[in-house]
Design goal:
This protein has 341 residues and is α+β, with helices and mostly antiparallel strands. The protein has three domains: 54 residues; 146 residues, Elongation Factor Tu (Ef-tu), domain 3 (Beta Barrel); 130 residues, Helix Hairpins. The chain contains four helices and twelve strands, in the order H-E-E-E-E-H-H-E-E-E-E-H-E-E-E-E. The strands form two sheets. A six-stranded antiparallel barrel has the order 1-8-11-10-9-12. A four-stranded antiparallel sheet has the order 5-4-2-7. A hairpin with a 7-residue loop joins strand 9 and strand 10. The mean pLDDT is 85.
């Protein structure tokens, strides 16, 4: 019994020893793994640092200059563009004619309205002549009516006097009848003259009415023509500002329309410029807005301009800078250096 108990105690001590040894081995293994991980991390850091040291600190490329502040001029109507003698890069002033847009429909409409106005003018002139003639005729008819009325009154009074005398037996029957016959003749003549005068007045009224309508039609034709001429004037493209013409979207003889984004572009502030360059993917991926840049232009080779990256759009990088030289114009070529760190 005592022997069995001794063996059990020995087995218990061996178990604790084995557990201690296992714990020690686990600790050693964990420590070894930590050391290995630390060494691997240091190796990666050293490799990244080496790679970083091997990357260039700048990227360079050829760029095209453009103004930051540009006024877009759209085509006012559809038609065929006829450019004035002005070229890209030229100075333009406010109100300067840049182009004319020919529209066959508008031209035909103007010609039709001009013909309508010409006919309306001729109609008014004809009716004015007719009215002057009608008024003259009415004036003559009125004078004849006054004379006929005066003669009729004399004959009528004489006929009335002869009637009284005949009734009183103071005049022969033949004299009385002759006076009545003259009254009837004079009455007919007077009625005819009066009707002619009334007709002359009615003609004046009708011609005047027609003239009023013709003048209204002429006024409407004039208004329609003026509106068409305004549309025609809108076909002229003028510069709204002083500046440098930097782009023309179409050439002479080509079709344009208001649907186009712009027809002309004019730079109005040449101090604020941009340099636009294309970079390969491995370089553009390292460029960020705000990075410093240097812009060199052939026109002023001894005076580089300091700038900064404004934006990155795909492979396109835009560098903004202040241009102090009037010799540097939009469209010029520049060499740009961007500092990456």
């Amino acid at each position: 019994m005592t022997l069995v108990r001794g063996r059990l105690a020995l087995l218990g001590r061996l178990r604790w020893v084995l557990l201690a040894v296992a714990a020690l081995l686990v600790g050693v293994l964990v420590g070894a793994l930590s050391v290995m991980q630390e060494r691997a991390h240091q190796s990666r850091q050293e490799a990244a640092a080496g790679q970083q040291m091997s990357l260039p600190v700048t990227v360079e490329g050829q760029a095209k200059l453009r103004a930051q502040n540009v006024v877009n001029i759209a085509a006012p109507i559809e038609g065929t563009l006829r450019l004035e003698p002005v070229e890209v890069g030229a100075e333009v002033h406010s109100g300067q004619l840049l182009a004319v847009i020919e529209n066959s429909e508008l031209t035909a409409e103007v010609q039709k309205l001009q013909e309508d106005l010409r006919r309306a003018e001729a109609r008014v002139q004809d009716l004015e002549a007719q009215l002057a003639s009608a008024r003259l005729e009415a004036s003559r008819a009125e004078a004849q009516l006054l004379q006929a009325q005066s003669e009729y009154e004399e004959v009528r009074k004489e006929a009335q006097r002869q009637r009284r005398l005949y009734q009183e037996g103071a005049t022969p029957r033949l004299v009385y009848e002759e006076a009545q016959r003259k009254l009837e003749v004079e009455q007919k003549q007077y009625d005819a003259v009066r009707q002619a005068a009334q007709f002359a007045q009615e003609r004046v009224r009708v011609v005047q009415q027609r003239l009023d309508l013709a003048r209204k039609a002429r006024q409407e034709a004039q208004a329609a023509l003026e509106e068409a001429l305004q549309d025609s004037a809108a076909a002229e493209v003028h510069s709204p500002v002083d500046g440098i013409l930097v782009a023309i979207a179409r050439g002479s003889g080509e079709e344009v329309s208001p649907a186009m984004e712009w027809l002309f572009q004019i730079a109005v502030d040449l101090r604020r410029m941009e340099a636009v360059l294309e970079l390969p993917p491995d370089q553009v991926s390292r460029v960020r807005p705000g990075m410093p840049a240097v812009v060199r232009v052939a026109e002023v080779p001894d005076s580089p301009f300091n700038g900064s990256v404004k934006r990155v759009n795909g492979s396109e990088v835009v560098v903004e800078f202040i241009n102090p030289s009037p010799a540097v114009l939009p469209g010029a070529t520049a060499f740009v250096t961007i500092r990456l760190r």
